[in-house]
Task: structure prediction
Amino acid sequence: GAGVSQSPSNKVTEKGKDVELRCDPISGHTALYWYRQSLGQGLEFLIYFQGNSAPDKSGLPSDRFSAERTGGSVSTLTIQRTQQEDSAVYLCASSLEQGHSPLHFGNGTRLTVT
Amino acid sequence: AQKVTQAQTEISVVEKEDVTLDCVYETRDTTYYLFWYKQPPSGELVFLIRRNSFDEQNEISGRYSWNFQKSTSSFNFTITASQVVDSAVYFCALSEASTGNQFYFGTGTSLTVIP
Result:
């Protein structure tokens, strides 16, 4: 079946502009995660959605970052007034239930802020 | 404090050699889950295995095997007879019952298999 889909795959933007990154999770997966991976680095947790519960936003690095999940499915990560340090690969993952089910990752969106 | 430590940043082996990737974790929970993921050059992380804290049996899947030892808080991953296609970054991760939705990832080990 279809995996986690992310769009766009690549995004180049100018410093100060806003960007939106999209994630389509696997159908039926109630949990959705956003991670950030800088070049050669590990995974940095950003935000987590589980069903209709309030999201866990504890990993968002600043108030320029926000995310929403509509209808318990598609999620959008928004970065306002982008900075060069925002350049990274943004990974979305989904799983059947919280915590302990394996995460299924998308291919990521490579964001470059010039 | 880092909950998952992958001390090996980069490893290079010659094809057909065996290689072990180390993973040490830290938790106070009695119920927890350990994972390994593979990230090939294409970029997509691929789930390899999940092990819960109550199952210390080692697991073998083809050329892959995992050694879970609670006594040393380790969950090491061995690739036997390595192949070029094994070249990737491998991540170990921990999920605790007490912090249900959090996955703690190690910093990854970059494996290069030289033909």
Q: What stands out?
A: Strands of chain A lie at 5-7, 10-13, 19-24, 31-37, 44-50, 65-69, 75-79, 88-95, 104-105, 109-113. The first strand of chain A starts at residue 5 and ends at 7.
